[in-house]
Amino acid sequence: MIKTRPFRLFINPRAGTPGTVVLPDGGYRRARAEITSWPGYAQTPLRAFPAIAASAGIGTLRIKDEASRFGLGSFKALGGAYAVCQVLAAELARRSIAPNATSADLVGGTYAEATALITVTCATDGNHGRSVAWGAQRFGARCVIYVHETVSQGRVDAIAQYGAEVRRVPGTYDDAVRAAARAAAEHGWFVVSDTSWEGYTTVPVDVMQGYRLMADEAISQWHGAPPTHVFIQGGVGGVAASVSVQLRHAFRPAPILIVAEPDRAACLLASAEAGEPIAIAGDLDTIMAGLACGEPSLLAWQELGRAAAGFMAVPDEAAVDCMILLKKHGMVAGESGVAGLAALLLAAADPAARQALGLDADSRVLLFSTEGATDPALYDALVGDA
Ligand SMILES: Cc1ncc(COP(=O)(O)O)c(C=O)c1O
């Protein structure tokens, strides 16, 4: 187990209410067919941790390990790159160059002259930008990525390695989102964002449809009685919403879904408390860089606001404890990848939270370690010789 640390838990009074279909299943089937056809595609492993489960007083703990996803180190490889492919195909059709360009056409360079003149852009705290840059390189587009001031140089270098131009802007992730949108409007670029807002939903739907593959794989790898609980980390909420949709698709009743965030960037928890999506103030200063977001994605909120049973905010120290714990069990998980485990272990050790979430010795918990050591120097610094 890990050390007891303060955390917040909000039980969502709107859980289970009907709402809009954010991610239609037809779109997911197309995303799955496309992504699973890419060279290098392989399912990531679902790992079992019986000793951690026993010490947490639950029945089963399995963690989907995204560290090996397409060699990019995180689940984000599924979303941004797929959306880049969709953006390019749509633009080639709009320009009457190719009505139905496939990813194989793009990778093969059939429309290379045209795609080289198309620029895709986004903001990132690391992993999404890496996916967009990788997709742009693969599919032959130009790429400009915006990062905020505290994104580590290791993560910037990892993006630049795929041929993208990386621009650093002052402020937080949310400021970088606005900078990318401004630049796109000015230069006629295409924003491939992992977050959505009023009037900007087509691309983030594609991004989130790509993420569903991670949950779909985990469900197909799960054996025995279905999971009772799923803890999943939230930045803008995109991956949590994708997991939520896929769980509801696969299981009736769906497992209890708990969204975990850093306590210094808990915009989804704050929105749940407010009963509507709200932006939180502050510098969002957390080591969980991928989760350092102050504004929920509109689409993600539409799913999570009605489907998540609870929202938890956990401290950075608990994330480091979990990185160390997993390392001792032979698994490499990055700072943003362990928030779900931190939430589970803190809740499992707290009698009131255990009861509120219905965690007991029979609980079967599914988690997603959404990144490996995406910044190896930072990983080493945090985990040390543990
Ligand atoms: C490793 C990791 N996990 C989880 C998330 C959260 O994803 P979302 O912003 O879609 O909630 C991110 C976002 O960058 C991430 O990098």
General description of the model:
This protein is of the alpha/beta class. Helix content is 44%, strand content 15%. The protein has 16 helices and eleven strands. It has helices at 25-36, 50-56, 80-94, 103-108, 112-115, 127-139, 153-160, 173-187, 202-221, 238-250, 267-274, 298-307, 316-328, 339-348, 351-357, 376-383; strands spanning 8-11, 46-48, 60-65, 119-124, 142-148, 165-169, 190-191, 229-233, 256-262, 310-314, 364-369. It has a seven-stranded mixed β-sheet, sandwiched between helices. α6 packs parallel to α7, α9 crosses α10 and α10 crosses α12. The chain is globular. The model has no long low-confidence stretch (mean pLDDT 96). The structure holds pyridoxal-5'-phosphate (PLP). Pyridoxal-5'-phosphate (PLP) binds next to α6 and α10.
